[in-house]
Structures are given as C-alpha cells and as structure tokens.
TrEMBL record:
It holds the Pfam family HTH_24. It comes from Kordia periserrulae. Keywords: Coiled coil, Cytoplasm, Membrane, Repeat, TPR repeat, Transmembrane, Transmembrane helix. It comes from the Bacteria. InterPro entries: GPSM, TPR-like_helical_dom_sf, TPR_rpt. GO terms for cellular component: cell cortex. This is Tetratricopeptide repeat protein. PROSITE patterns: TPR, TPR_REGION. TPR repeats lie at residues 123-156, 163-196, 204-237. Residues 375-444 form a coiled coil. The chain crosses the membrane at residues 400-418. GO terms for molecular function: G-protein alpha-subunit binding; GDP-dissociation inhibitor activity. SMART domains: TPR.
Amino acid sequence: MSQKSVITIVFLFLISSTILVGQTSTKELKTIWENTKNADSIRFKALAKYFKLNNQAQPDSTLIVLDYYYDLAKEKNATEELFHVANNRGNIYRLKGESDIAMSYYKAAESIANQLSDLELKAIILGNIGNVHIQNKDYKQATQHFSNSLKIYQETHNKKGESHMLTSLGSVFLIIQNYEAALEYYQKALSISENTAIEDRRIAVIYLNIGWANFKKNQFEEARKNYEKALKIVEQTKDKFFALNGNRALANIHINLGNYEKATSYAKKNMMLSEELHTDILHGELIFARLAFKKNRVKEAIQKAEAVLAKLDSNSSIELRAQVFELLYNCYKDENNTKKSLEMFEQFILYKDSIQLEKNNFAVIREAVKNEFDLKLYENKLESEKAQANLKLRQLKNTFYIIFCAILLIAGILFYFNRTQRKNKEKREELLQEINRLKNIESSTVIGNSKRFELNKTKIENAIAQKLNETDWNILNILLNNPVVTNKEIAEKAFMSVHGIGSALRRMYLYFDIKDSKYKKTELIREAIKISRNP
C-alpha cells in the first residue's frame, strides 16, 4: 500500500454537504431545477443532490451544472447558495489535484461565510482549506485549520462536525507517520460517532484509516478487522473509491497473514474496481505479482512485476517503484540470477534511501507539527482556563448577589414582623388602657352605682338592634373581666365548645360592626363598654 492510498482515503470523504442523496435520477433532477415554476429552495435542493450524486463519478459534468447553480444563486441573490457553489467547486478541483484552483474557490467561500457570520459554514470551509494544505504537504497549516474548525464545532456543540475534524486531525498524523497520535484521534472520532447520527460513509472512513495505521504498525489482525468493518459499510453505500482501497488493503493484509486464497479474492475485487475507475491499476497488478511469488510461482511473479515496471512513469510514486524493485530482487535471487538480482537490489536501495529521506523529513515535520499543535493546545488551554476563571468569577458574584439579596429579604421580613408586632402590641395596650379608663369612669349609667363596672344589656341591644342570647351575654361578661382571654378559656368558663364560642363571636362581630383586626375580641368589649356608658 502506498502513500497515495492514504491520501486517497484522507481526501475522498472530506466533501461537506447538508443535503442527503436520494434515489432521484439525474434527468429528474434536471427537470426540477430547470422548472421556473418550482420554488427556489426546491430548485437549489435538486442542484445540491446532483452534486452529491455525480461529483466523483462525473466531475467535469458536475462543474458545468455548478455554473448553472452559480447563475441561479446570483440571480436570486441567494448568498448561502453561492457559498455552496464555491465550496463544491473547490471540492471537485481538489479531488482533481488542482489545489491552487481549489484554494481560490475555498477562499471565496470563506469570504461568504464571514460575510454571513455563519459559524457552521466557516467551520466547513476551514476544514476544506485544511485539506488543500494536506495536498500541498503543508501539515502545520492543515493542523491549524483543522484545529480552528474543531474549536468552532465544539463551541457550537456540533458533534458531527467535531467527529469530522477529529478524523481530519488523525489523518494529518497518519500521513506524517505518527500512528499513535492518529489512532488516538480516530478513536475519539469513532467514540462520538457511536452516540451520534453520523453518516455511515464517514464511519467507514474512520475504520479505513484506523486499519491503515494498524497495518503500518504491523498489527495485521487488527488492521483486517477494521478494514472489514469499513468494507461492509462501503459496499452498502456503494462508495467505489473506498471499496477500492478497502479491497486492496485486505489483499495486502492477507498476504502478510499467509492467507493467499483470501488475498487473491480481495485482489480480484480490487482490480475490477481499479479498471472500472481507471485508477491505481499498477498497484493491483503488483499485488498479483506478490501473490505469485508467495505461491512459489517465481517466473510468473517476474513476468507480472516486469510488466508493472515497464508501465511506471514519472507520476508513479517512490513507494511503488521501491516495492517493484524489491519484489524483482527477491525473485531473481530465488532464481540465482546474481546479475539481475544485484541490479534490482541497487535500484531498490536507491528508492529505499529516497523513502528513508522522506521519512526523515516526516520526522522533522512531525516535530514541527507537534510543537505547533502543542502550542495550539496550550493556547486553547489558557483560553479555556481564562473562560473557566471568568465563569467562576461570575458564579461567585452571582452567589454573593443572591446571598446579599437573601440577607436583605430576611432583614426586611424580620423588620416587617417586628414592626407589625410592635404596632400590634401598642394597639393592644391602647385598647386595654381605653377599656380600663372606660370601666373606671364614674357615671350614673353604672348599675347599682358600685365600684365594679357592669355592662348594660338593654343599651347594647338597642344600639345593635339585636337581641343578645344567653351565650352572647356570657361571652361579653367574660371579656369584660379579661379582654385578652382565648376562645378556649371562654369555652371552659361558659361550659361550651370552642367551635360554639367561635360561632358566637363571629355573629357578634357582625352585630357590633367590628372590622378585621388582630384584637377583635378586645375591640368588641370596648364597643360594648362604650355603649353601656352612653347616656
């Protein structure tokens, strides 16, 4: 498996869109978007669906449709749709390997996202710009853009986007051969995907990339399991590029595990897809050459490997060249062809040195990316700590404010009750003093002219225009002796129930027109005394 395989895996899945692909045919979609009677939203949705259906299979045709999409969005002044057009154009040119053109469209999309102040669109485009930086091997910039996108997704609680960017960061580390870090990020992304409704093809990509990291760490059994999980998904979603990489990987894995029959089966599937998609055919042919060698069919292996060697051109990767020369070296060595084996060994060492040099460069890049990433993490940590400190300060202020308000409220309540109690007490004393004063005034109305004051029943009945029954009269006389006596004490003295006393008192309050008051009984007896004293 070559570096090109990794980059293919990394880039194919990173095309962002919010429209789900339906089963609508291209012809039907065209009818929908060209029908001016349809609502603009329906026409735009049809164009977006067309992009999802055809951007990989027919990129050039899709670019023509995107021109129509752009004109319609421009005509309708649909700014967000203009963003999607620019972003989609960038996606196609990125997959075509034209990174400069892709970047120009992504920058246009970024400008629109900033204009709209739309964080989600900004996060999408930051991720795609990061993809271009990977394509250009600027891994520091890629890491920075992916990290900024991740931060937005985390702040907006977008779990799908967060998983997407964790996968992208894992892919950076995968490419620069920091497999431990790559696996860490992929596992985080996978953990989120298990609890979130994330598109199956994205989960498949995570498994593909975890499998690749396992393969590079010589963890072939783990690699097999993850690639099989990925392949099971992509066979359902019909993502042929992903299926191609999965089958090729499993063919190589089973060669390493010594399962040549299974390796042959996956190699055949891989070759069918390579020929259908017109890509990576030489990698497929090399797998068959390796299988022939493993099965001790050395002459067949030489024939197939030499055929691959003859087809190599300037675009062929260093890894592929090294693999071809290594296989031919082993084949000629088995045939005791010293001259040819030495010739192939020299070529193998030449390309192996180039690969080692690239690995050394990656080591430098890994350190640079690590330093950049550590700095970013430190800055994010400081920012997070600052935010936490501000939050704690606000919470502390709120707590103090609540406590202060509670103290004020309690103090206010206590003041109110104390003030009310004091007023009630003063009123009670005033009533009692007035009652004593009225009782002690010498008057001709006092019956028998004795020192002890007695109520005048006749005057009272005339004043209230009601006849007082025995209970009422007993209650008034008890109150005359003790104006603050309780209902229970009155009941005991009158040989009645508390309920009966309460009922009698309520009736007399109406007779004497006693208003609501805390000391109704005291006011009642005061009124009775006043009436009794009247001439």
